Every structure is written in structure tokens, then in C-alpha cells.
Fold:
Amino acid sequence: MIYQQLINGLMLGASYSLVAIGYTLIFGVLNLLYFAHGEVFMVGAFIGLYTVILAGANIYVALAGAMIACGALGALAVVATVRPVSKDHPLAQLISSIGVTIVLQNMAIYIFGGQQMAFPETIKQELYRLGPVIISSVQIFILVVAVVLMAILWLFIERTKMGRAIRAVAENHETAALLGVNVNRVVLVTFVISSAIAGIAGVLDGVKNSNVSPFMGLEVAVKGLVVMLLGGLGNVTGAMVGGILLGMVEILSAAYIGTTQRDFITFAILILILLFRPSGLFGTRTTEGS
Amino acid sequence: MLAIRDLHAGYGKIAVLHSVNLSVEEGQIVTLIGANGAGKTTLLKAVSGIIRPSAGSIEVGGANITHRPPHKIVELGISQVAEGRAILKRMTVLENLRMGAFVRGDLDIGRDIEEMFQRFPALQERQHRLAGILSGGEQQMLAIARALMARPRLLLLDEPSLGLAPMIVTQIFRTLRELQGEGKTIFLVEQNARQALQIADQAYVLERGRVTLQGSGQSFLNDPEIQRNYLGKHAA
Structure:
């Protein structure tokens, strides 16, 4: 029983990780809590859904479509709602991102209606028994996509020139600029990557729950925030591990304590972290400013 | 190589520099000395494009760079070793050096890193360590090595001796001399006036945002006013 719950926790956690990675990357380069990130996830889910319904596409095309469309949305968000807003007022960009949240959610309600929509079956449902655990083909698919995505992203951040530039900008804008990094471009790339990952996470969530709704972004946005704090602000590896941890904790508390207490426990963790480990479980970020 | 004409700059509404004129000839070491708050760092930030001058011009090798963004200025061969060393503490020594070569697209980066290791052997030993755990002197060497990785024509340094032990300061000034011998042009901002003037071909004094004196490094060392105001503490 416990193994089964751990698998379920891993599934839930993988999607939290994917969203939290984006939050963390954006927070890293801009010191900005990009609240609209959950809505990008929602938009990704709908784009995946419509790719599947209208184009009769398979799940791979849906994932690619959501990735590209959400990446473009990320670029648009930077150009239209981040760059023009003054950096001198610390709250201005946060409020601008809340504005984006409202616009995206209302556009989704207007276009798709305010109800849940069923996500058609795109992966043939099969169950596999691995010792004490039953795992479905859908679960395996989601897990593989999430793990592959995280591995690619980790390699990108740690091993490529652009990845180093992103880390340099996250550590200090001025230092990065003095080394020849075009900081504006790095911010743009970071938004595109984060948004593309959120889009994929949205499609995976639609596949997992077999439905999507214009309101699915909010919960994910809040959970992603908890994960980011858990993993340490601006720490990508922390976001990956933190997401899995939160997923495990939620599933286990739902299984052994009760489903109604699930969110209570999540936010109790958040408060405990803020009280006792404000830099997160793996936090290394110092507050040297940007 | 560097010509600054009638430069006015500051932060928002606060003006720091008032009509600064200054030039650095190719192959020279030029130093700018001045008290805290005179505007030395502001001047370097304006040259590197971190702050936008409100008036005046900055030319490098005949190209006007006054309103170019910082990364374009680095591409022109101007690297700055910023105040307080500004190393990337959460990256390894090796990654810091690679970041130094960010503007380069050639394949000689590995060879240049080897060269830096020969110049600063302490960096080689610690190449896989996080730069944040290096000592102050090692961090300063890393900062200089990282700036050199861009293969700059003009190297700007903002108080490289700040907070370092005298032996290490001597070593850093010796390195600057060596770099001059290799054909680099160096613009050095310092509060440690004595050692800076000893290696400088040309020197300027900045006081409250204005250049008040200029001359050769040697003439400054013998100038009674300079001795009183800037070398007093160290005078024998």
C-alpha cells in the first residue's frame, strides 16, 4: 500500500516540480514572483486539449504545440508586461504579473467557457504490476516525460553557455553584464523556457486528470510557490526535489490522515519553512540583491 | 585608446560626475586616485555602460560608446574588474573563467584557461571549488583572470587592492605591470595611491566629481600637495 502511495506521490510531485522550476528560474533572474505562471500552465493544458480534439493529433504533437505556444506566450509576457514596468518599484512587476493572471484566466473563461472539459484518451490505458505496485501506462508516460525534461533542463543550466549566463544573471545582473552577457536577452530566454515547461506540465496534468479547466492554474501557482520556498529561492535542483517531496507528503497525508487535511498539511509545511528555514531545505541563495 | 570628454553622470537625479575630461593612451597604465565618494566607481560604471551618462562622450579607439549597453562594450575589448571583486560565488573557479570568455566564439578558450592557471597557480588547485570559498586575494586574482579571459585591449580595475594583505597587493600590482608589458592598456582606480602611482605612466586626481590634477605618476609622487592629501598616511 505504501509503495503504491509513493508512486502516486511521485506522479503528483513531478508536475509540481515542472511548474516550480519555472517559478524558480524566473525568480532567479528577476527576483520576481511571477504569479501568472500557473495560468501559463492552464493555457498549455487547453492548447494541448485543442490540438488533440481539433487536429486529431497524438499526444506528442499536443505536447510540442503547448510547448511552442506557451514559450511564445512567455516571450510576449516579457516584452509587454515585464520590460515596460519600472524595476525601481519592487512591487510593480509583481502587480503586473497578477494583471497577466487575471487577463489569461478571463480570456480562457471567455473562449473555453467556465466549465471543466474532458481531455480525451490519448494513451492506451494499460496497467502493469511491478511487485506490490500497480502502475498505469499513463503514469509511466507522464513520469518519463517529466524526468527527461528535468534531466535536459539540468544539463542545460549546468553545462551550456546559456545556462551559465542564466546562473550568472541570477547571481548578479551587473556582474553578468560586465562579463558581456546581454541581461535582457537572458531574461527573455528564461521566460520562454519556464513558460514552455509550464505548458508541457499543463498538458501532462490534463492527461493525468482527464480534464482541464480555466481554474486549474491557481492551485498549481500556489503549490509551485510552496515548492519554490521548500527548495530554496532560485535553486533549480531544490525545485525539482522539493516538488517530488511535496507530492509525496500530500499523497501520504491524504492516504493516512485524510483528504480534507491535505492542503492544511501543505500550508503547515509552508509556515514551518518560513519560520525555521526561510532559505529553503536546499537554499543557498544569499540576499545580495541584483 | 580611451577618451572621456565633458562627462556628466550620476544616479537618477543625483549628479556625481561634473564635466570629467580624461584620456588613456594605448599601452599605458593610467591611474585615477581620489577619496571615497569622489566618483571613481561612477566613472568606471559609465565607461562600462552600467550607468548612462547624462552628458558628454566616451570614446574607445575612436568609437563612441557613450550610449552602448554593457555587453556591447565588452565585445569592443573593454573588461572591468569591478569593485569588491564581483566574482560569481555560486559558480566554480573554472565556470567563472569560462564566463569571462562569454563574448568569445573561438576555440582557444581552453588554452587561455591554462595560461591563467600558469599565471595564478592557486586558481588551478581550486578550479572545481565554488569561487565563494576562495580567500580575498584568490578572489581578486580570479576576478583579474576572468576579465583577461575576454582578451581585452583595455582593462579597467576598480580598487583591486581593497581589503587585501600588503604582500598580495604587491603581487597584484606586479601582475598589472606584466600585463602592460604584454601590450594591455590599463586604467586603474585606486585609493592605495602610493603603489598605484609607482606603476602609473599618467595619473589623475578626482575630487567631488571633477578632475583637479593630472600629471605623470612620478611627478605626483613628488608633489607636496599629493603627498599631503593622498600619501600622508604612508609617508616616511
Remarks:
- Strands of chain B lie at 2-11, 14-24, 29-33, 55-60, 63-64, 78-81, 154-158, 185-190, 202-207, 210-216.
